[in-house]
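Holo model, iron/sulfur cluster. Inputs:
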Amino acid sequence: MPELPDGEQAPPDGSLPDPGVHGGFAAYVHIPFCAVRCGYCDFNTYTNLRMGPGASVDDFPGSLAGEIALSRRVLRGEGRLLDTAFFGGGTPTMLDPGQLGGVLAALDSAFGLRAGAEVTTEANPESVSRDSLLRLADAGFTRVSFGMQSAVGSVLAALDRRHTPGQVERAVAWARQAGLDVSVDLIYGAPGETMGQWRRSVDAALALEPDHVSAYALTVEPGTRMGAQAARGRIRLPDPDELADKYEAADEALTASGYRWYEISNWARPGRECRHNAVYWRSGNWWGYGPGAHSHVNGTRFWNVKHPLAYARRIGAGESPAAACETLTAAERRREDVMLGIRLREGIEVPQGAGPLVARFADDGLVDPGRAAGGRLVLTRKGRLLADSVTRDLWA
Ligand code: SF4
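Output:
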């Protein structure tokens, strides 16, 4: 698992230089449990469901409630403040719907969910039932994001996923019956995946008629099981050209079916974009609850201790679970705004003095020339594939 950044020491009481969230804020809740660890995954998640007091599946919601109470003491703002909440992991649905609903209720009573708030949980298709989805909807969840990954059995096996393609179909149907919006996540570039298999997965996702689709290239970190297999030459990871072809194939199919890209890896039916993710991409305010969760409030970032037991001990002692914090300078904020903003459909304002560079980007087919003439830097499909190098050139 990746280590947390260094940063400065965070105050034990969780206080912040500027704690005002008057325009509202978002809540992220990290549930650090999974049934098995997938070979490519380096997220902060654990298959040990009994780690100890405050960190076991049964009493982990109590630790989250402690952090919610602390955040209520720290943040300043009147009225109903919560625009979106997102439960991620890990596998949030390793917790019972009653437990997830309890955490959501604690957030609501601390801050007030606004009318029409977007409340999402991630879920693995095999970890839900008709009843559990109904209970989540009753508890106030509005959206579920399923880790579909692929519609091909051998690809799912290569990714260590435990569900079958049929389980995704069933879970999506149940979610619809419960009145939940549906997103599906896909992964391309698994070892051995052919272009034909990838196209099948995209078509199968479209056949489910979800509101939203995310598609990510497989990234394999060195510390993972798959990373070790790749290092020993046991598996072949896809080259960048193959990943680019798969991205283009997905974008074509999704666009043809009425989904619009709104961030490099995300497509939605009009009006169904994930509002929670937009808070991250537009450098809004959010509090991340749970072990290893990151937060951002008015230019100050802080992140929690990573291990669930260390997290639970801090909460139990009445202390902030923040491991460290950093306050961004104005220049760092601008840089971050560009890095994130360039990934969005609306792009960014052409930075001052970047005219000649932007003209070169347009000649290379990386940005929309019409939008550039109007002062916006908006990536083309080719540009989206090379977004990192566009950002690097802007800073060079
Ligand atoms: S289900 Fe998701 S979070 Fe859990 S191990 Fe697999 S990839 Fe990681």
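The pocket of iron/sulfur cluster is lined by residues 34, 37-38, 41, 43, 45, 89-91, 124, 147 (CB under 6 Å). The first strand starts at residue 8 and ends at 9.
Archived with the compound record.
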